[in-house]
Write a structure and sequence with these properties.
By secondary structure, this protein is of the alpha+beta class. The protein is built from 10 helices and 30 strands. The strands form 6 sheets. Strands 8, 9, 10, 15, 21, 22, 25, 26, 28, 29 and 30 form an 11-stranded mixed sheet that branches. Strands 1-2-3-4-5-6-7 form a 7-stranded antiparallel sheet. The chain has a 5-stranded mixed sheet with strand order 16-17-18-19-20, sandwiched between helices. Helix 1 runs parallel beside helix 2 and helix 8 packs across helix 9.
Amino acid sequence: MKRRFVLFAALVAAISLLTVSVVSCGDDNGGGAPASNLIGEWRTTGAPVIIINADGTGTLIANPSQPIPITVSGNTITVEAGGVTGTMTATVTDGQLTLSNASGALASVLQPYVAMGTFNTTPYTPGDGGGTFTITSPYENINWSTFGQYKAALHTHTHNSDGSNSLPESVQRHYELNYDILAITDHVWFRIGVGTGSGTEIYRDLITPSWATTQWPVRAGDGLIALHGEFYPLTHITQQQLDDYQSGVGRPSGRKMLMVPHTGEMAPHNNEEINVFFYKMDQAIPRAPAAWTVGSLRNSILDAHDNGAVFFINHPGRTTLAQDFRSADAVAGIDVTADPNNPSNIDSWIRKYANLYLEFPITSLTGLEVFNRRDQDSLHDRVLWDNILKLTMPRGRFVWGYGNDDSHSNNAIYVNYNVFVMPENTTDNFRAAMVGGHSYIVTTVAVNEGLNRNHRGSSSFVTHNITNRPAINSVSVDHDASTITINSTNTTSITWISEGRTIRRDISDTWTAASAVSTLDLTDAAITDQIGSYVRANIMGPNGMAVIQPIRTLKR
């Protein structure tokens, strides 16, 4: 019964996050029928669908294989399973639906998502266009001219676990390098020694509850962390420093750096780690469960989801050992990504990850880290990503890609980062952008793609001064023409990929540093038969590479 409840809670939690486009609308008529302006099909990119019928019945589709029935009376949506009930209020304003007022037995699961408020944009509803393909893009309703682009570091260690710099030193260096969003993800359970006699390992619970705290949730010992035979005090920044960072003090641009709360890296075993954000936001001092030290990846995902976190799977190449496959060939420039014997194509690994993404909603398990450090572990993880997408995208399950430094020293910062495109840099917008895929990756080392491959794993390759990296001006879709257009900066080539295969590479003499435009026509006879369930693109420049999120492409 507990497993049934957790799965159901996972699905129900998804609907609280929705702010979606309306198909049919009207006025509130109250009573036992739904408000007429709620009737129709509501959806958001990569997240669940809500169908509300005129007779008050409906369906929540958080997982395509497990639709959940709902009932709607007036503006109240009710969900129930095995006697467990939860309700929310649905309202429509300017063609957008917002869920609020979670109550009942499921309120604690729903409330962290309800607290996000209303999305500021409404994504495209597939089927509205008249083209040959149905295209669903995470960038569909981003206003590129008014939204900001915010650089994020989402995998960072300090000497509160196994990093070489203190938390204040790491935060300050990210601030100096003009990061807009920072998550410190020290290892949640970090071993500091061995207990006398019994040989029991001693751990500290390092979910970061806030940034300016001395109230670390310590499980054993004296409040110190052992690192390379020395002991350091657990470190934090002051409240004044926190206020300054989040107000942009000392920056010419005045841009603040958002400090993501309740974060950490959880590792059950075998390097199968996840980075969690917003973990147990209802608790001032969150505690990680003891099972995390001996559990499986799936059990960790279950716990993180059940405690309201948003998270992604880290550096899968360390687990699959794909980083050891023909690495010398990759560094030498031999294309190994098309080799069917690549370990990232091993069916058991692909199925394992794909099944996790299909089981858990995107409102919690959002994606996969496909760039890690200087690409020493992750060089084949884009191949794995494509193989996972081949299984999940036909069922409507997006898997967003992330690129992170996994920095353990300040010299390792600014190799990879994620750019989130949002109306404003707030905690709620950041969480919604993680779920909605409103982001792209920028990296300076991509071995298989030919970017600085000789610097794979090189600690001497410090990237702090690398400027003019590629960036995205816009990604747009013409649904009637079945085309996707990228406009980018600092670009030398744009490579379009579908289901792991390069379908086109564009280079043009007319491009400038400020604008390079590439349009992919899905109906082009030269490539249309190669279009699978999604496309994505690598934007290469002289000083880096940008990678957009997958865009779903289904023939009508």
